[in-house]
Amino acid sequence: AEVEETLKRIQGHKGVIATMVINAEGIPIRTTLDNSATLQYAGLLHQLTMKARSTVRDIDPQNDLTFLRIRSKKHEIMIAPDKEYLLIVVQNPCE
Amino acid sequence: GHPEIFPLVFTTKTQEIFDCRVLEDVTEENCFKLIKKEDIIQDLKTRAAISDFHPVKKVVLEYPGEELLVVFDAKFQYGQNFYLVASEEAKENLLKPPESNKENKEEKEEVEEKEENGEATPEVHPYKPPVRKPWVSLGSEKEVEEESVKDAVAKIKYMISRVRRKFGAPITFTDRNASHVNDSYLECTSYQDKAFSIKKLEKNVGIQMVPKVREASTQTKWTYPKNAATQYFPRQLSNEEKEESLSSKQLKEFFTSVHLRMEVALQQNEIMNAFFDDWKALAEDESSSGGKPDVYLKAYHSFTDLLYLKDRTISCVCWHPTIYGIIAVSARGPLYYEEQANLSDKSLLQQSVILFWSFFDPIHPQLMLECPEDIYCFQFSPSDPNIIAGGCINGQVVLWDISQHEEKLQNAKPDDDAMKMTAVNTVNASFLNVLQYNWMSGGKRGEVRTQVIQDSSIESPLVRYCAVSSIQYSHKKPVTDIHWLPDYSEDSQTGATFESRPGVRTQLVTCSPDSSILFWDIPATKLLEQPSSEKVREEEIFDIPLDVPDTLNPLDLCWKPLIKINLVESDTNTEYSPVRISLRELHYHYKISEKVQSLNTEVPVKESPYTEMSTPSSKNLKTLQNISTSFFVGTEDGEIVYSDWKMEMDSDPAKPVSQKHTQKHTIHTETINTLQRSPFFKDIVLSIGGRNFALWKEGVTTGPILQSSCSAGRYTAGQWSLTRPGVFFIGRDDGIIDIWDLLKKTYEPSHFQNISESMITFISPCIASPKQHLAVSDYLGVLHVLEICQTLSKASKNEHANVLDYFEREVKYLK
Predict the structure, then answer these.
(1) Are B270 and A14 an interchain contact pair (Cβ–Cβ within 8 Å)?
(2) Which residues does the UniProt record annotate as the domain Roadblock/LAMTOR2 (chain A) (predicted)?
């Protein structure tokens, strides 16, 4: 229930296009996009997050990745990684 | 035989003498009797001739031993009853071997007995190793001796030695002239020695063949199998697993830890765009507000055809929606049409056509569509650019299908070699034409080429129309406006309107000054030819059953409209004569993609509002909400009518449907020649007629939100710009195009440019390429294609918002 609420709140932000929750293996758990797009995002972003995290930790083993933001021409993809899950939000920042 | 055995006859006397009486002294078993030699000799002496030993006297005398063996021969083996063994050896043999034989015999008998008795216990003979026997030569030694090779001569050995200390000693060489000293070198030449000759003998040599064995090794590359795996299916969780993970504790913790970060990031984005490039934005603003002085329309191309457009004007110009560089032009007789028609000798030339021009070939039209009559207006179908609908001067509606020529249009290549001309053979095969051409290349090169035309085999294909409406059901006056509509249908029971094939436009609306608006549906054969994944909606429009899908003839003159709307003002019962019509969602977004749009791909219809229509349909389709049934009509008298109609529940097709309308405005003094909705704002309509134009907003009933003052020239054509929300082009009767920019000035055009000498009949912008084009047709039948400069084509960032603001302000002022 709290999970639902939080997700709804995030989804309700201005400009948010899609929200996804991915598990540690890259399998989507919860999504607001259609299936094929979700799978695509999940696979690609999961790998990217792993790479980013390993990069950060390689440079400094005490460090860890907390947030990843990819800004593109059309929108911004924000990824919040955690130990077991990944929260991905796609937002269109321009009004 | 046995040379030692001498058979003897022993008489009884002899037997008594020697005690070898038969059956007494000697028996069969005991047959041996040893008699002394002396006794025999004495017997011989005493009885000389009658002694039984007489025949063997010699033998006895020679007998070496002392005792002679006499054997009783019971069986007369040797012929007599006794025999004498003459030799010691034999005697021994006879005496002993029987004994040894006896022994062996006994053994053998034992063995035989045993064997005969039974083979119950085979006795294992103890292994006796082969006893070495003395070599018995059988003569092979000699052969070996003969064959073996032995050195005949002993080998001579030489041993050459050198003192140890001389090995490795330094060498000293001295020079010596070879020719000087006599004995510097010795020669030992060979010569043939006559005294000595060696005979070559044949020598036997023993050879043994042995296979030569050699060991070798090599190292090869060992490819070892390795497992590899590929994932071809994305991993997904089942719904239960998803539910499970959603409700898991870890997810809750995850969210509590993560959502704060995410919200911060989202808010950051909302507050400010961090990547906004102020510098760049400044530059853009500058350019739009400062105003570059040179706003211009650059002449790009100019098309004309002396054959088909002679003494004709262009009534309508349309760009091909998907293929870049193709523009279609319809021609009709000028206003003094009736006079023209009387000139019979020109009737052959005046075949009404719609010409397709390509940028790459300014001289030959790419395609020509045959028209039954002059076409007043035509449109490409937005969903299938191969279908073209046109309205004729006599009120008929014509359809063409150019799918066969689509390839050709797409492959229209640039043709620099402009020496050829086409010969006309459409109507009359023997009709030859020699014309002269003037091709002006838009001011770039300034050349004027006049060429003599030879007839060649290249001609533009003429496409016959595939459907034409029936005359009695069409308009009575020229069809002045024609538009495509999305495909709608209505469930007769519920009265709701559905879009049966979203994106597929198969319906037309036409209006004509005979005060009627007709809605048409594309004939079903056309629908069959279009590969649509959905079922063709069957309408009983045609009386003739369409069981011959490919022939087009049954459709000629049989096409009836679906709905007819009479524009009659209910109060005063005056009829309107609409010249232009504008329905709500008439601005189509053509999906310009690399491949030609086919009906298999659904074009997404972006606009949501729809008009309601009543057509019987038995299918249950998806309901549409928010249907608006209003439309704008511009009339011949210069009135703008904003009307609405309500559908009767059981109205039949082709029956006039009455409607009530809400407003009419008379702003313009002359016929409305343009009534167009803005491509950016659905509720803003531009109307042009006479000497002024007006902007209307749907829903604002008090009047136009902008009305221009009387201009110098009469306005004859106009179009909104497709890229800039506040810009539109208006053509005048003196060949000048006014460019109005609402953000700059609203009381006069921001720019005007002279395009041609005669009246401008039609303007059509095109955004198919990065350079935008504006097609302008004039009264003399020349089509000018102009390039729109960048300031006119590129919208600035806030233009949309600014124009919207402007409109809203205007609306407020009205109130």
Answers:
(1) yes
(2) 3-91
